[in-house]
Design brief:
With 237 residues, the chain is mainly alpha-helical. The chain is 59% helix and 2% strand. It has helices spanning 18-28, 33-36, 47-60, 70-83, 88-102, 115-124, 130-143, 148-158, 162-174, 176-187, 199-211, 216-224, and strands at 2-3, 84-85.
């Protein structure tokens, strides 16, 4: 199962664009573009050639997808959660977008198809787990050297609610130094640097750590640290 922040399936073909519609109208009309231009436009074969062109235009057309109903929307939700690790917020947004794209058949069962309620039902069945998603996302981001503020931003984007975010906050705080050192190692900052550099370079390094979401006091300590073969987390408490 992949993370839905990276990709999303689009199962339906696009409808005919405006240019194709215009060309098709000219080809089918009695006094369309072909006849107005006279015999030169027909080429060898006359009407036979024009018929082939109209056939190609029709082949490019695709029938518009049917409007969604409750059953179709539920199947779409199931396919989505089978493919992607997601959240209730993201699943709701995905389903709402599909309804906007395809339209809605408001027949029987419409109440069951409300996207927010359907996303909650997927969570009740265990197909969506916001807290597990948040824990995995936070751990992955911190391994890449991103700090708590960047993690919090990712939670907001994914629709993680405040309760789940607060429950994970202690684990994120426990990894704060480890994450900041991972970023410093990638960027050759502080204990992973050469020890050379002026105030301007240190200011740039500090700004980079802040953009990565790390606390100011922790970032400043790491930037000011001398080169070391074995930096310890305890040195930056």
């Amino acid at each position: 199962m992949t993370d839905d922040s990276h990709s999303e399936s689009t199962a339906f073909s696009p409808s005919l664009d405006a240019g194709d519609q215009e060309n098709d109208a000219c080809g089918n009309g009695g006094n369309g573009g072909g006849s107005r231009r006279g015999g030169k436009s027909w080429g060898k074969g006359g009407a036979k050639s024009g018929g082939k062109e109209r056939g190609k235009d029709r082949a490019r057309e695709r029938p518009a997808p049917k409007p969604l109903d409750a059953a179709a929307l539920e199947q779409m939700a199931l396919r989505y959660v089978e493919r992607f690790a997601t959240t209730r917020g993201r699943l709701t947004a995905y389903l709402m977008r599909k309804i906007r794209e395809r339209g809605w058949d408001g027949g029987t069962g419409a109440a069951l198809a409300e996207p927010g309620e359907l996303a909650q039902r997927m969570a009740d069945l265990g197909y969506v787990d916001d807290r597990a998603f948040a824990e995995q996302r936070a751990a992955a981001m911190q391994r890449r050297g991103l700090g708590a503020r960047r993690v919090a931003g990712a939670f907001r984007e994914a629709g993680i609610d405040e309760g789940d975010a607060e429950s994970i906050a202690p684990a994120i705080a426990d990894r704060a130094i480890e994450s900041a050192l991972a970023f410093a190692r990638r960027k050759r900052i502080g204990p992973y640097g050469t020890g050379e550099g002026d105030r301007k370079l240190h200011e740039k390094q500090l700004a980079a750590m802040l953009r990565a979401g790390h606390r100011f006091d922790l970032a400043r300590k790491i930037v000011a640290a001398p080169p070391s073969d074995t930096p310890e987390s305890i040195d930056f408490d």
